[in-house]
Amino acid sequence: MNFKNISILTKKDLSLFFKNRFFSIITILGLVAYIIIFFAMPRIQEDKIKIGIYSDVPLTKIYYFLESHDAEVYKGVSIEDLREKVSKKLISFGIYFPSDVKEKKALKLIINIETEDEMKEAYEYIAKELYHTEFGFDLNIESESEIIGVDLAGKQIPVRKRLIPVLAFFLIITETLGLSNLISEELENKTIYALLSTPVNIQDIFFSKGITGLITTLIPSILFIIITTQFKNFFSILLLLFLGSLFAISVGFLIGSIAKDMMSIIGYGFVIFILILTPSFNVLAPGTLSSWVKIIPAYFLVDGLNKIINFNTSFLNLLPNILILIITSGILLFFGAFILRRRLI
Amino acid sequence: MNLKRIFILLIKEFKLGSKRFIIIWSLITPFLISIVISLIFGSFFIRTPRLGIYVEGEGEFKSLIYETKSIITKEYKTLDALISSVKDGVVDIGVIFPKNFDENLKSGEKVMLKSYVFGESYAKNRAIIVVTIGNIIRKISGKDIEINIDTENIGEKGLPLRLRIFPLIVMVAIFFGGLFIPSISLIEEKRKKTLDALKVSSLHLNEITFSKWLFGFVISLFTGILILIINSVFNLNPSLLLIFTILGAVLATTLGIILGIYLNDFATLLSFWKIGGIVLFFPVIQYLFPKIPELISMFFPTYYLIKPIMEIAEKGSVLNSIFYITILILINLVLFFILNLSLIRKGEYL
Asked: Does A199 touch chain B (CB under 8 A)?
C-alpha cells in the first residue's frame, strides 16, 4: 500500500463527487429535510389509556385501581361531556355508571367509531373489571411481576427521539448504493485497468474508495447527530457511526464488485437495501420484528445507536455490537476484494 | 417517429437491460414491498397487546385466552424462550401459568401468577393484558357476573389503520420502477457513449427516449397492477384503477426520463431521490399521519393519483373521478412539455 497513491486517488474521487453542484446542494437539502422531519415530530409519547368516567353513584375503589395500572382518568361532568371528549379523541373511551348500576348490573360504554375491534373488546373488559373492583368481587390471585429492561411505562421515549438513531442509520445506509457505484463505475468504464497500469495497486484503489465512502457517509450523519443530540455521548456515537460507515462501505463494495452495471446495482442493491433497513423499524416500534432480525448485521448498528442515544448505555455494554460490526465488515470487504480480484484477472 | 424502430429499441431494452434485474424488479419486488411494508408499518400502527405464555399444566384457560381478540397470544415451550421473547419485546408480558391452574381457581385456592414485563411496553398494553387475564380468571373461577354493557359508537368513521399503509405500497410500486428504470437507462447510455452510436444511426433521439419511456412505463404499470392485485384492491373497480395506474406510470416514467436527460451520474440520481422522494411521497405521509391537513397534500402532484386509488380501496368507487383524471392528464401534459423542451435544448449534448 502506498499512502501517497491513496491520497491522490481519494482527492480525485472527492473532487468528482463535490464538483457536481447539484449533488452537493441536494445532499445538503436532504440533510435539512431530515432535520425538519425530526423537529416536526411530537416531543411526547402517550402510552397510557385515558379513561373518561362519569357516574351518578359515588365511586371509590376504581380510581385507585386505575392509578395502580398506569391509566389516566378524566372525571367527566356529564355524559355529553364524555361523548365530546371521545369524538375529539381526547380520551380513549368513556364509561357512564348510572344510579342503578349495582342493581341492574348495567353500564354504558362510549367508544369512538374508529376504534379497532380488538380495542373495543379490551375496553369492555376494562369496564367489567372496574365494575367488579368497585362493587367488591375480588379475585383470589397473588401476582409477582419482574420488569425486564428499563421500565418506560408512562414515560415512553417519544418518536422524535427514537427517530434520531433511525435517521442517522438511514443517512449512512442510503450511501450504500452510491458507494457500490464507485467500484462498478471504474469496472464498467475500464478505468480500473488504466489505474492498475500505473504504480497504483488494487489495495490502494480499495482504500481510497473506502476513505471517499467514509467521508461522504460519515459527515452528514455526524452533522445530524450534533444538531439533534448536542454532543451528548458524542464519542461513543462517533465510534458507532464510523463502524456503521465501514459496514455500509463493505456492503457497497460487495455489491459493486458483483454488479455488472448500474441496473444490476439497483436490482440487487434495492433488495439488500430493504433488508438492511428492516432492523431500524424495531427501534421505532420495539418488538415489531422478532429475534430473527438479529441475523441482519445492520441490527447491531441501529440497536447500538439507539442504546447510546436513548438509554445512555455505557460503551462497554456495546462491545458485542461493535465486534459484530467489525467482523461482518471485514468478511464483506474480504469477499468484495476477492470477487473484484477474480474479475480483474 | 417510426413505430417499427421504437419497437426494435424496446425489445433491445428488455433483452439487454439485465434480464435478472427485470425479473427481480417486476416479480419479486412487488411481493417484497407489499410484505415488508405491511409487516413493518402494520405492526407500527396497530399495536395489539401481545401476551406470551408458558404453561406448566394444560387447562381451560388456554382456549379462553386464544379466543380473546383484545390480545395476541403466543405460547412458548420453555421458560427461557418466554423470557427471551419478553427481553426482545416480541411480547409485552410473559406469564407463567402454574400446574392445576383451573382446579385451584375453581376450588377457591390462592393462585400465584408470575409474569415478566417488557420494560419498553406501553402502559395501556400492560393494562389491557392484565384485565383480559382477570376476565378469564373470573370466568374459570365462576365469579363472573353477567354485566350488561351498552356500547355507543360515536365520531366520524375514518380510514381503517390497515389502509393507511396502502398508499405507500402503491407509490413505491409505481415510482421506484417508473422513475429509476428510464433515468438509469438513459444515464448509462450517456456514460457508455452508446447513445452517440445510436444518434449517428438513422434513429431519431425522440425514438430512443420514447423506447426507454415505454420500457419504464411497462414495468411501472405491471408492478402497480400486481400490487393492487396482491392487496385484493384491483377487483374493486378494475377499469378505474387501470386508468389511474396508467396515469401514475406515465407520470413516474416521464419524470424519470427528464431526470435521465439532466443528470449524468447515478450518485446524483440517488441524491435527487432523497429529497425529491419527500415531494413525491408527501401525500403518503398525510395518510400515515391524518392530523396533517389534507389541504397541504393537494399541492403535491401525487395527491391526485393516491386520493382516487384510496377512495376505491375504501369505498369501491371515486366520487369525482373525472376531476382526478383531468388533473393527472394536465400534470402529465406539463411533464411532456418539459420533456420535449428538454430534448430540444439538451438533445444534441446528450
From this structure: no
